[in-house]
Structure formats: C-alpha cells, structure tokens
Amino acid sequence: MARMVLVVSVSIIRDDEVLMIKENKSTARDKWNFPGGRIEYGEDILHAACREVKEETGYDVGLQATTGVYQFISHTDNQILLFHFTAEIIGGHLNLQEEEISDGAWIKISDLEKLSHEGLREPKVLMQIIDNLVKEKLHSINLFNKQIL
C-alpha cells in the first residue's frame, strides 16, 4: 500500500568533498546516496537529520543549510517528501552501519555530477540535490522552526 513518507538526507561537507554512502538495503542494493532516513513520528526534522547521520556514519554533525525539499514517487511507489541539509562534522568518527551500508567515499563536490545515474538511488532527485550543491544554491537553516510540543 502506497503512503506518504517523510525523510531527511545530509551532505556532510569536509573541505571541498562530500560523503556518499553505498546502500545495502533490500530496496536499494549497491546504490549511492547521501546519509539519511525516515523521520520518526513526533520527531523534529533537524533532530532526525542529525540522528540518521550518527546512526549511519558514526559522525556527529552540525547542520549548516538546506538545499530544499524534494517531492517524488519512489521506486517502491511511496510519495516521498525529502528534506536535504548540508552539515559539518563536529564529533565522532567514521563507523559505517554495516547492515545497511556497504561502502562510503569522500567525493569532490565538483565531481558529483560525473556519477553514473544508474549507480544512484533515485537518480533524478539526487541529481537535483547535486546541482544545488555544485551551484551553491543553499538556504538558511532558519527556514525550519523548532517543533512545537
């Protein structure tokens, strides 16, 4: 049954490179993506982004900006609302979650556009995000208000 799914993803930027992960999930085997995942019910979007990065990569991050919100129908036929952020490492160390991630690579931002579309998870969406990263089309994180409890 198709449904609406809210997800976050994060471009962890170090110098002029960004961390990409290769997913090892039944729905995305050997596909490159940015660290991220589903927003849990009742969870603040910004907290979800930091939590997902920590779970998947071992890094603690400070969110810097957003490249925007992306809407699409996934290959599993769910309607997805994806909130994408940029971040810097503020702690932790690289420790990829082996059950769900088979590899990680630091890629120059200027080289992201050269990635094979076939090797990307949801390539049309990732290419939109990559285009915004390369062109530095970033928006203030202040667009996101704190969750009202």
From TrEMBL:
Q: Which domain of life is it from?
A: Bacteria
Instruction: Provide the Nudix hydrolase domain boundaries.
Output: 3-129
Query: What is this protein's name?
Result: NUDIX domain-containing protein
- Recite the UniProt keywords alphabetically: Hydrolase
Origin organism is Alkalihalophilus lindianensis
Keyword Kinase listed = no
Family in the record = Belongs to the Nudix hydrolase family.
